[in-house]
Design a protein that fits this description.
This protein is α+β, with helices and mostly antiparallel strands. Helices cover 33% and strands 30% of the residues.
């Protein structure tokens, strides 16, 4: 986890791919990784000569139940090894893993509309640009946009995910609300 922490901290302190401004602790990243695993989502690492040089993971896009079939991706590569195919290998593997699950959409929330490398990476992995949120982040003394990209998984909206048998019962209870 130390290597992942080092890679991510560099991006926090020197880039806009993350809108965090203070690097989280190793313990915090360890908890985040555990949450990803607990949710049944993939957390991948790339190794080069036995050393971790990048990571990628999927996390819930939003917490509300209707979004449960949509995930957001994150990819971070050691800045000294950019443009060597590591990010593409990680994102391709992540998409491949999620494609086999119940998820139907993957969202990329790319910090900074000038982050051409990340935008191109996602485009090469089948993502389409679906929007830009203008000036939603403020980092390094400047307003930053967020680029939204999206890719269908597992047949996208043309297929329905498997819904557990108790799901309709839960939905009916949710509609009734606390007052019944």
């Amino acid at each position: 986890m130390i290597e992942i922490h080092s890679i991510y901290c560099h991006h926090v302190l020197h880039g806009t791919s993350s809108f965090e401004e203070v690097p989280p602790s190793v313990e915090c990243l360890t908890h985040r990784r555990a949450d990803v695993a607990k949710g049944g989502l993939p957390y991948l690492v790339a190794k080069f000569y036995g050393q971790i040089v990048g990571s990628a993971y999927a996390s819930p896009y939003r917490s509300r139940p209707a979004y449960r079939f949509t995930v957001e991706n994150s990819v971070y590569v050691d800045h000294r090894l950019n443009r060597r195919g590591i990010g593409r290998a990680l994102l391709s593997a992540l998409v491949g893993h999620c494609d086999k699950g119940d998820w139907r959409q993957m969202i990329a929330v790319i910090g900074d509309s000038r982050n051409a490398a990340s935008i191109m990476l996602h485009r090469r992995c089948g993502f389409d640009r679906v929007g830009v949120l203008r000036a939603v982040g403020f980092k390094f003394g400047h307003w930053k946009d967020t680029v939204l990209m999206q890719r269908a998984l597992g047949g996208g909206e043309a297929t329905f995910p498997e819904v557990p048998r108790h799901e309709p019962e839960r939905r009916a209870r949710d509609r009734e609300g606390p007052l019944g």
